[in-house]
Design brief:
Layout (H helix, E strand, L loop, with lengths): L13 H5 L2 H11 L9 E5 L2 E8 L2 H12 L7 E7 L10
Parallel strand pairs: 2-3
Antiparallel strand pairs: 1-2
Length: about 90
C-alpha cells in the first residue's frame, strides 16, 4: 500500500495544543476553589509546564503540583513555587 492510499489523518500541531496547557492548569486551580493558588503563574517552557509564585505552606505547593499534574496533556512539570513562611504574630502581653 502506498502512502497515497492511506487515509489522511487529522494531525494537530503539538505546539498549538501545548500552548493551551497553562490556561487549563490555571482553570483547574480556580475550579478547585484554592484561592491561594490563583496567583501561581503557569507557563510552558521547552515542553514543561512550569509553576511559579509564592505560597505560604509546603502543602499548597504540593497541591498545586498535584492539580497541575492531573490535567490531561501535562506530561512534564516543573514546580518552581517558593514556600514563604508568614511572619509569626506576636501576642500582646
Amino acid at each position: 500500500m502506498t502512502s497515497a492510499m492511506l487515509p489522511e489523518l487529522d494531525m494537530v500541531d503539538s505546539r498549538e495544543t501545548s500552548s493551551l496547557l497553562p490556561e487549563a492548569v490555571s482553570v483547574q486551580f480556580r475550579d478547585r476553589g484554592e484561592w491561594t493558588l490563583r496567583d501561581v503563574q503557569v507557563t510552558e517552557e521547552s515542553g514543561y509546564v512550569v509553576l511559579n509564585g509564592r505560597v505560604p505552606t509546603f502543602y499548597l505547593k504540593q497541591l498545586a503540583q498535584t492539580i497541575a499534574g492531573s490535567v490531561d496533556g501535562v506530561n512534564l512539570l516543573r514546580n518552581d513555587i517558593v514556600v514563604t513562611q508568614r511572619p509569626e504574630r506576636t501576642r500582646p502581653r
